[in-house]
Amino acid sequence: MPSRSARRIACLLIAGFAAVVERARHPEIAAPLLVHEGGQVLGACSLAREQGVREGDPLQQARARCPGAQLLPADRPTYEVVWGQLLMAAADHTPAVEAVTPGLAYLDATGLVPLYPSETAWGEAVLSAVERAVGASAGLGIARTKCVARLAAADARPGQGPILVQGDRAFLASRPLADLPLDAETLRRCALLGLRTVGQFAALPRPSVAEQFGPEALTAHDWARGRDPRPVQSRLCASLSRRHAFAVPARDAAALYAILTEMGAALLQNLSRRGLAVRWARLRVRYEEGGSESVAAWLGNGAGRPKLERALHWLVDGLQGPDGASGWGAGVSELSLALTGLEPLVGKQLDLFAHRADRLRLEGTLRRLAQRHAPATVLRPQVAAVDTPLLNRRYALHALEAEA
Amino acid sequence: MTTALDQALTQIRARYGEGAIRRLSEPDPGALPAALPTGFAALDRILGIGGIPRGRITELVGVGSAGQGSLAASLAAQAQQRGGQVVCVDAFRHVDLGLLAHWGVGFDDLRVLRPSEPSLALALTRDLLAEGGADLILFDRYDPTEPAFQGMDHLLAEVTPLLGATASTLVFLTEADASRYPPGRALPYYATLRLHCQQTGWITEGLSLAGLVTRVMVIKHKLGPPTGDARLSLRMPVDA
């Protein structure tokens, strides 16, 4: 078991997240599932992945590889809601969650030893919370660095439980070099030099790596040596909360609403004073008969008092009671309201551009320019690989004409 | 009571259009905010108008790693924060998307124009403006010594009035030392604002390089104080 002060990072990975969500929504579909958007695969289920389909593949290519697949159009709002629920479920077990992209998140697992019997128990608690939220199992890798946690999570099989890595460098040593963020040319040159594993690459002196493969390879070299200083960058779990204990258990809805509204107003005032916006409201109740219940509501951007009050009503109505069916009328002994997902409130700015009535006008103009000059003249930048550490590979340009 | 002057104003408006004449005490309904903030308060202050002028040409002059790219990226982010659309004319096919993202430029409101040859970049810009333009157009980059741009100066004469008509702001990133700018080029003449960027130091964190310190000097300004300089700390993006 790691020491209390040792940094521990968990990576939560659900490959083909969109397809996983669709699978849970459509359990009757037995065929491989492909979720597509803009002519590309947004999510591929495990069956489709076994046949070589990957996210980002052109749809035609994916259909050729997986002829019997069922195609579904992407429903991003639903995926975002499910992803938000998943993050909230994970946030119950960690002080920090970094959402990278739907399907990939890093969790701070440092210092959790006193709260859970073991790191494995913590991982299993996270996985079961995630499974309840999404209806599908996830991979969880726990290590000292993000890089190793991600690789361990990718290794995890459904239902296997968390993979714990104690020695990051030893874990990496026997893995293939392709696990590191190296470009194809560097991998080719490594192969020519007889370098096949991460351990062999890590054994190279740092100046030699810089000289042979360029400064970009130094990041990969650091990772190979188990040095990945990237922290878990979380905004999700910053929260404000208030608690109210009833001397006499509350059985009256009006009294409950009144207390909650008062708590919400006080929290909103605090938020406003600190220049923060909030995304989630979470209500936790403790029942007189024992047991507790937690429900959360998405507030979105710019939550004001009316919006919060509506959410509070919705939350109270959604309470199931201590046995899951009797309702909360049995008596509430304690209320806890937390506003979570605090972010700096970006001030609204006046629109300087009076002529920007129609964004489509510019799109039309650019398409005409593409026709007049060349199709590849007008390009749209996109994030190509959000998780790659190298800037020059994180973004890509795509021809606007190809999207039309 | 209608005076003779009022009658004259009415007649002029009827003959030449609504905005043809007005009293200075009256608000100008068609007036656009004068400037686009740069994102650097010190620079906005010395520019006198709160940023770079809209509907005009601005030139950022400097030699490699002087900070023009970062300053332009900051401008693009400021334009987008105010609801603007940004187009980058990538003449030499080396637009730095990582730098733009680092300064907060959103890709949804960014388009890149990449001509098949650098010599067509200015013509492409003119065509874009003729079709209505964009709120901010970054021309990346203009090299006055580059043969591709020689003989293209006449296009600037066509571009300038289009900028005024479309309220687009055109920013040239020029790769040259201001003191050794080749004579006879038209861009310094057509530019309303010219800023010279010069790297004066580095920002380090421990042993790592984190950014650079740039001195930005006003070398031409037709709408504000014609001189002045500001020192900007520009942090560089790093591999995550």
Task: Write up this protein.
Chain A is 39% helix and 22% strand. Chain A is globular and about 75 Å long. By secondary structure, chain A is an alpha+beta fold. In chain A, the strands form five sheets. Chain A has a five-stranded mixed beta sheet with strand order 5-6-1-7-8. Chain A has a four-stranded antiparallel beta sheet with strand order 9-13-11-12, sandwiched between helices. Chain A has a three-stranded mixed beta sheet with strand order 3-2-4. Residues 346-351 of chain A have low confidence and may be disordered. Chain A has helices at 17-25, 46-50, 59-65, 76-91, 119-134, 146-155, 168-173, 184-192, 198-202, 206-213, 216-224, 253-274, 305-317, 359-372, 391-394, 400-403, and strands at 9-13, 33-37, 40-44, 70-73, 97-101, 104-108, 139-143, 163-164, 239-250, 276-277, 280-287, 292-298, 332-340, 343-344, 378-383, 395-399. In chain A, helix 4 packs antiparallel against helix 5 (119-134) and helix 10 packs antiparallel against helix 11. With 240 residues, chain B is of the alpha/beta class. Chain B has helices at 4-16, 41-47, 68-81, 97-102, 121-130, 153-166, 187-190; strands at residues 35-36, 52-53, 57-62, 86-90, 110-113, 136-142, 169-175, 193-205, 208-221, 229-235. In chain B, the strands form two sheets. An eight-stranded mixed beta sheet of chain B has the order 5-4-6-7-3-8-9-10, with helices on both faces. In chain B, helix 5 (121-130) packs parallel to helix 6. In chain B, 42% of the residues are buried. The mean pLDDT of chain B is 86. Chain A binds chain B through residues 216, 219, 230, 349-356, 359, 361-362, 365-366, 368-369, 372-374, 376-383, 389-392, 394-397, 400, and chain B through 32-33, 36, 54, 79, 81-85, 87, 90, 95, 97-98, 100-101, 107, 109-116, 120, 124, 127-128, 131-132, 134-135, 166-167, 237-240. Strand 15 (378-383) of chain A pairs antiparallel with strand 5 (110-113) of chain B, so a sheet runs across the interface.
